Amino acid sequence: MLNRTMLVCGLVIGLTVSLAGCADAEAADYDREALSAVLADGKQAEQQVKDITERLARSCMEDAGYSIHPVPLKIPEAATPVPGASDDIEIVMGARFMFQTDTIDDSGYGESPRESMGYRPGSDDDPFMNDPFNELSDEEQWDYWVAYDGGDGREYAAPDGLEPTPPDSVTVNGRTFTFPVVGCYADVQQRIHRDSIGDYLGLSHIAREGLAYIAFGEFHDDPRLEAGLEAWSDCMSDNGYPELGDPGDARMSASRLYRDADVFGPEDPGFTEIKAEEIRMARTDYSCNHEVGLDQGRVEIFWEHLEPYAIQHETEIFAWKELTDDVLARAQELLGEY
Question: How far is 317 from 226, CA to CA, in rounded Å?
Fold first, then answer.
């Protein structure tokens, strides 16, 4: 474990990189690039494990006679240079569009109701239109979920008198994480993780969700944020968008444009005009953000608060990365058998 009063040098869980480098801690620079690389690689490996698990679970379902599957919701990739960036952190920081300008010109914030469900303007691939799974009866859908993972978390879909199979769980720092114990998903997960699923979920929480807690806690309480938000708000007001306290207000304002006009998607009258206004607002938001250095400043503040947490949990972070790599290797090996 690192602290600022010790000499730090050597291997950590088999890896040759250390977050604080190999030097007197008082003189050492905190290695952002090392942490970012570990978190980015681990996050990518986690996603690959999830994708392979779902793919193999679907194959298991097909072997069991289920040929109609629900369309999965794909979450956009994180776009900020925040270490271990996740959608939670991006939402908290409001830093997504500062670093993803291509979507601004095409869809602004992407706040139309249809877009929030996964659709993007200009695309013919609407993932939730003509989904054959939705054409199944409630009983057929429930039967599918029971065979998939026991139905846990989908109590709302259970026909009267039926209940899901309770999952197993692991608790880390007061947070409880569940995982299925029956169904195709549970079978595949057991083969991939063996007996490490509890460790996997626990270390993932420390390495990733712990960062979100910093964003929710120490980061939001930092008094330096207010000055940046005030400068951004003044810039937005000067450019025709008054009474916006932060970028979240701008997004909500764009969302209300659709709701107030009862516009759902591109097929509705008025969508083109509202989308054009949303894009103008998002472009102004981006320009003001860049002009006052809002997101750059917030990322620096975030890093300052992240440093002690990352040093405190360095062992767990590297253990998470190593375990994730091992689990991914087993998942890929299992996939190769099909």
Answer: 31
Burial (0-12, 13-18, 19+ Cβ within 10 Å), 161:
exposed
**Per residue in 248-258, pLDDT tens?**
899 899 999 99
Counting other chains too, the contacts that 300-304 makes at CB distance below 8 Å and 24 or more residues apart are 301/219, 301/222, 301/224, 301/225, 302/82, 302/93, 302/214, 302/215, 302/219, 303/30, 303/32, 303/83
CA-nearest of 170, 172, 171, 168 to 180 is 168
Does residue 27 lie in a domain region?
Answer: no
Distance CA 211, CA 204 (A): 11
Does residue 1 surpass a pLDDT of 70? no
Which tokens sit at 335? 């996939």
Q: Are 329 and 109 in contact (CB under 8 A)?
A: no
Q: Terminus-to-terminus CA distance in the chain, angstroms?
A: 41
pLDDT digits 0-9 by tens, 99-155: 556 778 888 888 887 776 655 554 555 555 567 898 899 999 999 999 999 998 888
Predicted confidence (pLDDT) at residue 170 exceeds the cutoff of 80: yes
Kind and range of the H or E element at 20? none
Whether 12 maps to a domain, the answer reads: no
Domain carrying residue 312: 34-126+166-336
Angle (nearest 5°) at CA 23 between 17 and 24: 140
What type of residue sits at position 28? A
Q: Which of 336, 328, 278, 243 is nearest to 46 (CA)?
A: 328
Residues in the chain: 338
- Count of domains forming the chain: 1
pTM, 2 dp: 0.73
